[in-house]
Amino acid sequence: MRRLAIPLALMLALGALGSPAQAADKVTRSAECQGDWLPGTPTVTDVMNGEISLVGLPAYKLGKDVNWAASPYKNRSWEFVFQSLRWMGSLVVEYENTGEQRYLDRATEIAKDWVASNKYGARGTPSYVWKDHPVSLRTQPLLCLSKHVNASWLKDSLATHAKLLSNARLYKKGHNHGIDQDIALMGIGCRYGRKDWVSLATGRLTGTVKLDVDAQGALMEQAPRYAVYVYDRLQVAMTNMKECGRKVPGEIARRAAALKDFVAHSTMPNGYMVPIGDGSAETEPKIETGTPKQEVKAYRAGYVFGRTAWDKPESAYYSIRYGPGTKFHGHEDHLGVTYYAQGHDILMDGGFHSYEKSSYRYWTLSPEAHNVPTVVGAKFRPRTASKLIKTSYGKDRQAFRLTDKAYGVSRTRSVLVNHGQDLMAVLDTASGGKKVSNIWRFAPSLKVVSKSGGKVVLADGKFKVTLLQLSSCDKVGGQKVSRGGKLGWVSPTYLSKTATNVVVSPAAKSLLTVIVPGTDSPKVSCSGGKVSVDGVSFSAGLL
Fold first, then answer.
1. Looking at the predicted structure, is the pLDDT value of residue 308 above 90?
2. Three-state SS for 511?
3. Are 4 and 11 in contact (CB under 8 A)?
């Protein structure tokens, strides 16, 4: 990598400053620049060397003269992060921390060139440059720079940002983007003494938080991993309010605190958040949540989370989806389940691949990418709400019943989870005499060992898991198992696509599916409305 040339006069000036520690002492550290708002990549050295790596994609050679229309990977996330200029802001932070003038000079050069090349509404300026989120996120590095550079071009650009941020038609109410818009507008208003902007941002934020985080603390964006982002951003918003001499509204503080319980419940025993909706399986929350009082929690927003015990990696864990129709970061996963037991992922969703407009991205949103029942011969109706209609809570066993009309008739799923002797049982039916089928997506590490007589056995080394299917106590055979192909995929991390085993049931008027971790030969009996699996007995109707 080629290091950018530093003018001799600047090198001499730096030498005159003495040691970096002495130089840093002469630079005022500002609230706008300090704080945990910078991405981990690219590093300051990378930026100074003219090379940046964003959203996990390979490094891009930025050079000294930046091409602001660059989109080397045709990736929307890369474009938005590039235009956010946070990578430029890292140079200003480094200037504050070291006192080395070269960092501030290069940051100023980059920002001034960006402002000149990306006039709002000008021909040649890509439209995404002035979308709500790049505008919001770009405000932070520009404000940071403004603490050390007093220039009309910078102040004017921030005024343009504020004008867009305060535009009601462009405001994303009830969404994390709205929270970022309010933080940005509040920052500009406080920096330049515009009380009207500060008041607008504070007032809007309360309404947005009430829509985005419900009274139980559940995030309404339908992807639990965003709860961590929203929690962190609300901490920033509340800190900025106090520093700007504003009182934090009680509703914001209460709902921010309640979010911690939601994050805890949606985190699996392995320390990663359950990948529901637009959520990667590698999301590890970095906030201190404490330990909730309950092992099982049903959220009106559309989630059931349950576990055997807290703080035990071997604990079983499950999630169930229902609630309002799909929006924001949600998928068509209603009535879907995930299951983790004995230290292993067992049942997984299709996962989150990216925000790219690709056929695979749209497939990950579809019912076929989730562990759901389908009604044979009926057409799926997107964005249909579903309800949790019955529950049974016990220390060692919980059961739930959910229903909706996503296929025009009532489809009903009952879920029972037994702890200690781990198992999950799921009963699917539909009204009007319709037959149902269901999809079961197993973790990629589990490979099929055998399949016969209504039983599918998978294994990961010595660990075994068995799927059994019954209909009115009769064994149901004929399961189709695929790895890859049309259905057998999962995206555990951003832009990844991994082949995995998917079991598709035959059609039946009722399907009872039992997942038994830790064995390849469970003893099963069914008669008189009772089912027994390795001595664990339960009603054939589950509850």
1. yes
2. strand
3. no
Q: Which residues neighbour 357 within 8 Å (Cβ) at sequence distance 6 or greater?
A: 76
Q: Which tokens hold the place of 176?
A: 């994390």
Q: 209 vs 20, 178, 255, 323, 543, CA distance in Å? A: 43, 9, 8, 19, 37
CA distance 396 to 373: 26
The CA distance from 54 to 60, in Å, is 8
d(CA 535, CA 13): 80
Non-local (6+) Cβ contacts of 293 within 8 A are: none
Q: Are 372 and 353 in contact (CB under 8 A)?
A: no
Read off the pTM: 0.90
391 three-class SS: strand
Q: What is the mean pLDDT of the chain?
A: 93
The pLDDT of residue 1 is above 80: no
Q: State the average pLDDT over residues 253-265.
A: 96
Q: Are 540 and 451 in contact (CB under 8 A)?
A: no
Confidence at 23, pLDDT banded by 50, 70, 90 = low
Interacting residues of 207 by C-beta distance below 8 A, sequence separation 6+: 173, 174
b/e 382-419 (16+ beta carbons within 10 angstroms → b): eebebebeeeeeeeebbbbbbbbbbbbeebbbbbbbbb
Residue 2 pLDDT = 28
